[in-house]
Design brief:
By secondary structure, the chain is an alpha/beta fold. The chain folds into 3 domains: about 200 residues, Alpha/Beta hydrolase fold, catalytic domain (Rossmann fold, 3-Layer(aba) Sandwich), CATH 3.40.50.1820; about 120 residues, no CATH class; about 55 residues, no CATH class. The protein has 16 helices and 10 strands. A 6-stranded parallel beta sheet has the order 2-1-3-4-5-10, with helices on both faces. Strand 3, helix 4 and strand 4 form a beta-alpha-beta unit. It starts with a helix and ends in an 11-residue tail after the last helix. The relative contact order is 0.13.
């Protein structure tokens, strides 16, 4: 009889677990600042067909800040699934948020109480979990200064060559081919046009701090992406053309034009300079040619350095202190270095080091540049949630901030984001993120 009871209990557990596995999961695919209801359509369709999901996609107005958008997420869950324990408040509900959408999910977790939470767990995808440095650069004027610098340098060459170039070439090189698209892409323009959201998204904002100060007990995963160089042109290409290569080819063509005119004018300058020994009037033509060459060179060099400039705006490159040690010989009549980097002079200007006149390890501190991977808009250090296990952090290679939502657009025949989602959805039972 006792064994029979154990068997009944075991069968009951298996039965309920089976029900739990086969039950349809409510999944809310939440778009970010630049998105709409169609942003997640690609993966929504794949996994609704592949897994037993009941998905929700809707368009949110993201112009009025993170918390306002989070409340829209909560309302959309109530409307779609019903405000009850088996619907919008079901602890098996899963949220998947791209970019600002990840913050919207995290904020929805923060502002809802126990028993009314809309998600039992969530996945942030390339989200600015600790703030978006590009917002800080917009607010402090760095983006505007970079745009002005870009336009000036790109215009100098064509303007110097103005009277010997067809107007169409000058116009194409100085309008929206490079200068405008460097700054005036949809992502940056959306931030510029929504000051409330821009303030919310900046590093160190009260909203970002409140989200990160909140100690949740929900299971969480963060997916971060690393784009291949040139990260900025690839991201803009995805924005303009739906792939990450077409605009890169445009930039390379423009770079060839700038370099070609630089070489052409430099060659003319040299030829005129040589001819000036026989005809002094050619010295003036030589000077003009060298001047034109220098103006085209400014545009070419800007194109070559544009990725570094962009990296400084999104704070992919940061200056950080680094401590290092060197093994130095310290003579008694030379500076005696201290651990903090200062030094005393012995014997005239300070105490005599008892360890002088011998070799010893000396600690120094210097400031170095650290380059972090990015998705073209957000550095790795803000995409990755730091207070979750390493096993809950997933990486999509070769993806920029936009194409991570549909990696079939990169044309390599591999859907890297789908691979990572499957890794998550195939985690062993009873993991929260397991789906069938």
């Amino acid at each position: 009889m006792k064994n029979l009871k154990y068997k009944i209990v075991l069968i009951s557990i298996v039965f309920f677990c089976t029900l739990n596995i086969s039950a349809q999961r409510n999944v809310n695919w939440v778009h970010g600042l630049d998105g709409n209801a169609s942003s997640w359509q690609h993966y929504n369709q794949i996994f609704d067909n592949e897994r037993n999901l009941n998905s929700l996609r809707t368009t949110y107005n993201t112009e009025n800040g993170i918390t306002n958008s989070a409340n829209q997420v909560i309302n959309s869950m109530n409307t779609r699934y019903g405000n009850n324990a088996n619907g919008a408040n079901n602890p098996q509900n899963l949220g998947i948020g791209h970019s600002m959408g990840g913050l919207m999910l995290r904020d929805a977790d923060r502002i809802t109480g126990s028993g009314t939470k809309k998600f039992g767990g969530y996945i942030t995808v390339t989200s600015p979990n600790y703030g978006a440095p590009i917002s800080n650069s917009l607010i402090d004027g760095s983006v505007e200064n970079a745009a002005e610098n870009a336009c000036n340098k790109l215009a100098d060459g064509p303007l110097a060559q103005l009277f010997s170039l067809p107007w169409g070439i000058v116009s194409n090189l100085t309008t929206n081919v490079l200068c405008d698209k460097f700054i005036d892409n949809n992502l940056v323009q959306n931030l510029q046009g929504t000051p409330v959201t821009n303030e919310d998204l900046k590093v160190g904002s009260p909203t970002i701090d409140a989200i990160n100060d909140y100690e949740t007990n929900l299971p969480r995963i963060s997916i971060w992406a690393e784009e291949n160089s040139p990260v900025h042109w690839r991201m803009i290409s995805s924005n303009l053309h739906g792939n990450d290569t077409q605009f890169v080819n445009t930039v390379n063509t423009a770079r060839s034009v700038y370099h070609g005119f630089y070489v052409y004018n430099t060659s003319l300058g040299i030829a005129y300079a040589v001819g000036g020994f026989w005809n002094p009037f050619l010295w003036g033509a030589s000077a003009l040619s060298f001047y034109r060459a220098s103006q085209w060179k400014k545009g070419r060099n800007w194109i070559d350095d544009s990725e570094n400039i962009w990296s400084s705006l999104i704070k992919t490159t940061r200056r950080e202190p680094q401590t290092y040690w060197t093994y130095d010989y310290i003579p008694c009549n030379y500076p005696i270095f201290n651990n903090d980097g200062s030094f005393d002079r012995a014997p005239d200007y300070g105490p005599v080091d008892p360890n002088c006149d011998e070799w010893r390890w000396v600690q120094h501190t210097r400031t170095i540049s650290v380059n972090y991977p990015s998705d073209g808009l957000l550095p790795q250090y803000t995409q990755e949630l730091q207070d979750i296990p390493i096993g809950n952090r997933y990486k999509v290679n070769g993806a920029n901030h936009l194409e991570v939502r549909n990696m079939t657009t990169d044309g390599n025949g591999v859907d890297e984001t789908a691979i990572e989602f499957r890794r998550i959805f195939n985690r062993p039972f009873p993991d929260f993120f397991r789906t069938n």
